[in-house]
From TrEMBL:
GO terms for molecular function: DNA binding; transposase activity. SMART domains: Y1_Tnp. This is IS200/IS605 family transposase. The gene is tnpA. Gene3D superfamilies: Transposase IS200-like. NCBIfam families: transpos_IS200 (NF033573). One of its GO terms (biological process) is DNA transposition. Residues 12-134 form the Transposase IS200-like domain. PANTHER family: TRANSPOSASE FOR INSERTION SEQUENCE ELEMENT IS200 (PTHR33360). It comes from Microcystis aeruginosa Ma_QC_C_20070703_M131.
Length: 139
């Protein structure tokens, strides 16, 4: 099996992680169009970090992200930026929807925690199929 490696002037790497972000209070926030909005937002954020989104999908209360990133980037900072920037963009563009769920006062979206796992134990194709098969909400 051929592994696809990424290259920078100082490194050749394949650092791929599976990230799960969960909505605050596990509220059912996302509909199909919100997941598409997040897909674009996460891709733009990742690009600024010189990272690459392999796959994104989710359900009404959480999002799965398969991401490859360069070794000189701090993963916890990248995830913090994904969370904070996507929250800001969601509130800036979809505030009426989020106010119905979280109220007027707080611009919250994600829990303080996250899940991350390296993709060494499972093939990327298996993880990609798992993320692709998430039961996206249809309403």
């Amino acid at each position: 099996m051929k592994t696809n490696y990424f290259k920078t002037p100082r490194a050749t790497f394949n650092l791929t992680v599976h990230i799960v972000l969960v909505t605050k209070y596990r509220r059912n926030v996302f509909q199909k169009e919100h997941l598409e909005f997040l897909r674009i937002a996460f891709q733009n954020i990742a690009e600024k970090w010189k990272a690459k989104i392999i796959e994104i999908n989710g359900e009404s209360d959480h999002v799965h992200i398969l991401l490859t990133y360069p070794p000189h980037k701090l993963l916890s900072s990248l995830i913090a930026n994904l969370k904070s920037t996507s929250c800001q963009l969601m509130w800036d563009n979809l505030s009426d929807h989020l106010k119905e769920i979280y109220g007027q006062d707080k611009r919250i979206l994600w829990t303080g925690a996250y899940f991350v796992a390296s993709c060494g134990g499972v093939t990327i194709d298996q993880l990609k199929k798992y993320v692709e098969n998430q039961d996206s909400p249809e309403y």
